[in-house]
Amino acid sequence: MPETLGESAPDAAIAARRARMATLARAPRERLEAAIASLAPTPQWERLRGPEAGMVMVRGRMGSVGGAFNLGEMTVARCAVRLDDGRVGHAYRAGRDLRAAELAAVLDACALGPGLPASLAAALAAMDAAEDAARDDRSRRAAATRVDFYGMVRMG
After folding, report:
1. What is the DSSP string of 32-80?
2. Tens digits of residue pLDDT in 1-40
């Protein structure tokens, strides 16, 4: 992630990790397993917390500017792991897939090293690209069902 003007190095590192964790939180389990398998040597880890599933309260705002309100609850899986070299990774994922939460935490820890392994960087880029393609496809399909109410009013 490129550093913007006025953004310090720690802020850039935090923003990069935030983006990486978001990618790992949304990636399918199969892609996470493939990313772990691509690392050489395969990382060894111990569980610090979880993996476990629980509920979190989702909050919303009317019109993005109104007062906050409780929208409802959703299920979340979380995990924290420590690699053999001491790096600690965390993951929170929507749903109940505990194995995916554990794998995402391991990949988060692996990315905290002095240099991002090339295979992990490629896997993260592929996850981002797949997510962008899926988002574009959903947007295209939704746009195809759009109705122009202004035109309907003028015709009536």
Report:
1. HHHHHHHSSSPP-EEEEEEEEEEEEEEEEEGGGTS-EEEEEEEEEEEEE
2. 444 455 566 788 889 899 999 999 999 999 999 999 988 8
